Amino acid sequence: MQSAYHSYVCGANFIDMNPKTSLAIGIICIAFSPIFIKLMPLAAIPAAFYRLLFAWLFLAPYCLLAKNLRIGKKDLLIATVAGLVFALDIASWNMAIQQSTATIATLIANLTPLWVGLLTLVLYKKQPGASFWLGALIALCGMVVLLGLGNLLSLRLNPGILFAAMSSVFYAIYILTTRGILQRVDTLVFMFYNMLAAALFLGLLSLGSHAALTGFSARTWLLLIGLGLLCQLLGWITINYAIRHIDSTQVSIALLSQTVATGLLAWWILGEAVNIREILGGMLVLAGIGFTFLKRCPRG
């Protein structure tokens, strides 16, 4: 008989779950990430380190016992490089949340699809299409409304905004780096090496910056464990399950609702509020990003 641990990690207990329900659970899980970061009195890089470490420690026993961890040198290199990029993404994301509001940081970080389209054009000479450029224009207009034209022209931006933008770029690079590898390598085996590389890199960065890695309160440890198991592990297992059963474009658009979920949680738990300009600008940004996923319908 499979243990509950085995069933949880490999996703067996989700087989009979509606994929849309699984996706909704995943979105709620990752929406809590900014809330955890805001609640803990911890520097950005150590928080990122423990997020990946706790998720990896929970995943590793199953992978070591039930998975063939043999992997080609090329795929191991890709998983490792992707782990380093993901580490930079999470570290930048944490700094963005700490220096801005959870809602605005999450919104700016969701610009990833635009960077993916632009990098695809530059690196692979693949034209993203008219819907992408129109969506990018709408999102750009939303950014102008959200941040203010005067602030953009004079570059008077909150550091949190810049870190959020950096995070979105790093995640776009991560997506392009891992393109195709999951078709060759088991998802959990990839996560084993990817998260291990990311955790080791963040651990070294924490030591290099002389950041405290111990001596935290019980509350902080619980928040770190929740960040690793709820947001990192459970969140992405349920989302990956949904991706297997739902069109990836629909999943990508649905993931934009993370901003709304995070905004509601930030209002409820943290007492954060947004003004009319931020709401309007945010709606335009989300609409623009969503538009980049639209495909032209074939003529009948």
From TrEMBL:
SUPFAM superfamilies, alphabetized: Multidrug resistance efflux transporter EmrE (SSF103481)
Localization per Swiss-Prot or TrEMBL: Cell membrane
TM region(s), chain numbering: 21-37, 43-64, 76-96, 102-124, 131-153, 159-176, 188-208, 220-239, 251-270, 276-294
Pfam families named among the record's database cross-references: EamA
Stretches assigned to coiled coil: none
Matches recorded under InterPro entries: Diverse_Substrate_Transporter, EamA_dom, EmrE-like
GO cellular component term of the entry, any: plasma membrane
Keywords of this entry: Cell membrane, Membrane, Transmembrane, Transmembrane helix
Domain EamA: 24-147, 159-293
Membrane topology: Multi-pass membrane protein
Protein name, as recorded: EamA domain-containing protein
Native species: Mucilaginibacter paludis DSM 18603
